[in-house]
Design goal:
Blueprint lengths: L2 H58 L5 H50 L1
Helix pairs in contact: 1-2
Length: 116
Amino acid sequence: MANEPFSFEQKNQQYRAKIEELQEKQVALKKQRRYVEEQQEAYFELQQREQSVYGFVLTNCEPEERAYIEDRGSDSLFLAKKAQREFDEERLQLEKEERSLFEQEEHQHQAYRSFL
């Protein structure tokens, strides 16, 4: 009987430590996701400026340079779309990991409540 409170306290501490660890991981993932979103926003702004410059150059170029500039614009647009997809994939992966951690935390809370 003397071991039961110690065992209870030890188990109690294990549950609390696991829940705290999961919460810390969630906070870290949220920060990482926010960083990706900020990078995505900055890239979008850069793309907007590039498109503006591209339009200006295309409007003011010599006719014989037009095809070359249009090709570069197509390449740039392709790369921009590719980068956007990569940002989206990374953000979705982080959100998926965040949901998984949340579910693990909920499971730990349920196990903890059952334990108590």
